[in-house]
UniProtKB/TrEMBL annotation, chain A:
Keywords: Iron, Iron-sulfur, Metal-binding. InterPro entries: 4Fe4S_Fe-S-bd, 4Fe4S_Fe_S_CS. This is 4Fe-4S ferredoxin. Residues 1-35, 37-67 form the 4Fe-4S ferredoxin-type domain. The keyword Metal-binding applies.
TrEMBL record, chain B:
It comes from the Bacteria. InterPro entries: 4Fe4S_Fe-S-bd, 4Fe4S_Fe_S_CS, FAD/NAD-bd_sf, HdrA-like, MvhD/FlpD. Transmembrane segments: none annotated. The keyword Isomerase does not apply. It comes from Desulfofundulus thermosubterraneus DSM 16057. This is Heterodisulfide reductase subunit A. GO terms for molecular function: 4 iron, 4 sulfur cluster binding; metal ion binding; oxidoreductase activity. The lineage of its organism: Bacteria, Bacillati, Bacillota, Clostridia, Eubacteriales.
Amino acid sequence: MPPKVNLQKCDGCRAESEALCVQICPGDLMALDENNGKAYCRSARDCWDCMSCVKACPNGAIETRLPYQLGYYPAKLIPLVGSNKISWTVVDIHGKVERFTFKNRND
Amino acid sequence: MPPKIGVYLCHCYGEIGKILDLEKLSQQAGKWRGVAASIHYPGLCSADGLEIIAEDVRQGRVDRVVVGACSPAVHRDTFLRLARQVGLNEHFLERCNLREQCTRAHRDQPALAMAKARNLLKMAVGRLSPAESFEPVSSSTSRSVLVVGGGIAGLTAAENLARAGVNVTLVEKSPFLGGKVARLHRYYPRFCSPRCGLEVLMARLLATGRVTVHTLTEVTGVRGTAGNFTVELLKQPRYVKDACTGCGACLEVCPVEVAPSAALPPGRQRAIEGPGLFPYPLNYAVNRVFCRGKSCSRCVEVCPAGAIDLDQEEDRLSIGVDAIILAAGWEPYDAGRINNYGYGRLPGVITSMDLEVLARPDGPTGGQLIRSHDKKPVRRVAFIQCAGSRDKQHLAYCSGVCCAATLKQIDYVRAVAPGAGIFVFYMDIRTPGNLEELYRRAREEHGAVFIRGNPYAVEWDPVAEELVVTADDTLSGSRIAVRAELVVLATGMVPCAVPAFERLEKDTTGFITGHLPCSPMEVRRAGIYVAGCAQEPMDVSTSVKSALAAAAECLATIQNQSVVVPPVVERHKCDRCGRCVEECPYGACSFDTDGYPAVNPPACRGCGICQGGCPLRCIYLPGFSSREMAGLIEAVDTGSMDEQPCVLAFLCANDAYPALDLAGTRGNSYGANILTVRVPCAGAVNAGWINDALLSGIDGVLVVGCRTTECHYGRGTSLAESRVNNLRETLQRMLVEPERVQVLTAGIEDGQSLVAAIKRFVKQLQELGPNPFKE
């Protein structure tokens, strides 16, 4: 399932050159809408759910809906990125929450 | 090479030492990673104490220093001077606030104070370990300033800067210098002729040899920042070459009469203008709005010097300057818009600026007050104060000078018409300071009648051929009609619009002003200063004062003594999104030729708003890199709080940090679980730091800034709020309580209410329970 962009929060990274999600998407699927300057996924079927865009978005404007094979709504997978840590919040279809925090290197 | 950190703890002659066990703390600190020396001493700020640190640095035992003592706001230069003396980079000196925000605030809970002190010290060490050194940046500049406006403010600023050795370009949009002041008859309080002061000023200005004057020139574009402005100028043709001798032969033959204003008769003014009584520049100028052009050409024929050239064309030029002084001045409010006063419709209704022209010996009537339609002398003059001022329909504000100007003009009227009746309609007479003397003189010596009431109409009585001013006298409660031959409208001041500077921040009245009261002269674009009536309505002497102030502030900037170390850009991480360029309140950040953001040191004020907004944390002030902040946050021992939620508070160094210091000093205890980080502005807090804090198990994060209207950097607090709100929404989706992150505001005296707000926050956190990220 493709990333969903919250148009209220997305500012198109000020439409300066390429937005962060546009830069990071390994499939080159994210683009800025010429009309409103907001990001969108231009080929939903090709998205691998790698969630790079979700992690990169400075405004937290992108959400990935999990594919149905993994879990129906309200199942969610949300990252929170720190300087040298990342945490994944996993919500399953029953609303059970689990969190996993990992060390990584972002600097 | 691993860092060698020295931890120096100060007993503050017992104040810290009697609550904290510094011996134990010092022993513990000595075992931390990276700590090479750990010492406690009765008074570090004493000469002996400083020498201990200095000796360790000199011997190479330590290369980074943590001073655990009083608040960084106290003894600031004591330790900075020490760092400079021993050649320690300023950013390798970390102050740790063990007094105001630890022992003073928590004197009743020594055990918790101890835990807090340990945490604060650990945070300081954690931050200092990955710190890098920064050399102060300096760039050489050629020192040149553009002054926009050749009125009294612009001339004063230009003259003072030129005398200080700065090259000045002075730009004036009209053909002659002197501005509004050159048009006045006299100015108060001395009643001298303004031309005298202008002459002296002009002579001194020319004597410097450093001022280039461009008349008939407007600024069409401004690019760049402090130390590096590029200004586009458009120079209109004068049609008179420098060969002009000022003989005035052209004036004699010019057939086009020009009236000085809508309400005044044409005098000697023609489509070719002379410089009047204040002759700079001496060259005449052709006003092409009125000139009939080459079909007439009588002036061209008669000019003995052959100086008139009606084929001249406009000229565009581009100059580079380090700073700009905006002294564009004012225009009188358009009296024609005040319908019921009949300006431009009724003969004898003029504005106070018209009266200045009329009173001048070179005015259309030679300084006499005569009726324009029948040339009889004026016997009764009525002044209407606040014509269009303090009125929501027109100008909502008081221009502050019209009262004194009218009182001055009563003097003019008395001088030429000793027997004339003088009536003043007013709402309030505002004559602060010694100007009260003018008011007294007008009433007692000149016998002017003051009527408190705003006239609702000025009408023409065709039978008596007089004007009738009707008003309600609010003191007697009766309706009054005053017959007069001359009605003077004291109109207010409106700032001159300069399109090239339209984007500068204005106050509600449309004037451009800096941060009041802290830096009134520098507008919120570093390197642009405002002087004279462009800033707010003011009289001549205040204009001169403001021009001197602007020149002084401008000099401090262009002398290139930068007081802050600007942020660094880590290019390998930067993706050139341009947020820093967009959000910098001073326009100090711009894309350089490689396309990466670069900070212009003289323009930077060190607010850190760029680092707060950077999604990749690749632009940061020294001491705030992601490594340093991660080191600081990871050092927090979240388990040491005795069941209390652990709170990390980012405090704005301007207001919030000293406010909390003050609260501690006054003994307002707020729980030892609040760990503070001093940031230059709430807008400098990066959302990534908050993520880090939450991921490290810190239960709540506070960002405390100045009140929104008081932020020294303009939008710092509101930016912090919008960033935090964004984060809170994400947290909500992750089923983490968004209340864990809050933005508070506090003024510098709000210690007590800040403590109360912090207590509420802690209570809320207790109800929420521990941070869900805590393992």
